[in-house]
Write a structure and sequence with these properties.
single chain, alpha+beta, Diphtheria Toxin, domain 1, three-stranded antiparallel beta sheet, 4 helices, 12 strands
Amino acid sequence: MKLADLQVLAQFDLLAPQPLFRVQHARARAGTVKMGRGLLLLPPSHLMGGRFDRYGEPVAYFAERPETALYEALCRREATGVSYTLLAQRALLSVQTTAQLSLLDLRPHTPSWPVLQSLRFDQTQGLAAEAHAAGLAGIVYRSAQQYGMDCYALWGPALTALHRVSLEGLLEPHTGNLHGALATALQGSQVPLLP
């Protein structure tokens, strides 16, 4: 898939301050890429495991709401369960943008290009490479996990144009109670909570 394949090339300006949310590891592990003075903990860029990943450059995925971030990361359609062990290792990061970011807007193309929500990542990663070459700071796209919600893939200088609002564990440390957004996502997805 190429930018030239799209009937309309829409640009979306993500204004500041815009709140964004992501689920990430609570602590850095071996190979973790730290961005923004340790704000973002990202997988190594050569893994190419995300829909809009770019080889050799970190990409961070965000959602417009905490629940959407949880649907995307943990409560996916194909998930058969989520364990307490996994939840204890993840955190919900809330940030705000500090600058206007110009993004490729793929939302108008979702109905006619199902590949944008498929697992054929080589196609969407190629599109991300072209968007980067066109000088865009990322992509806005529809969530494949929560109807009508937006997600963002950001790269390059966009990753330093973020200010941390909060970093919350998905389990309360003393009680083990679920974060409210996680409880909502688990209920909506009907993904079972496992020991």
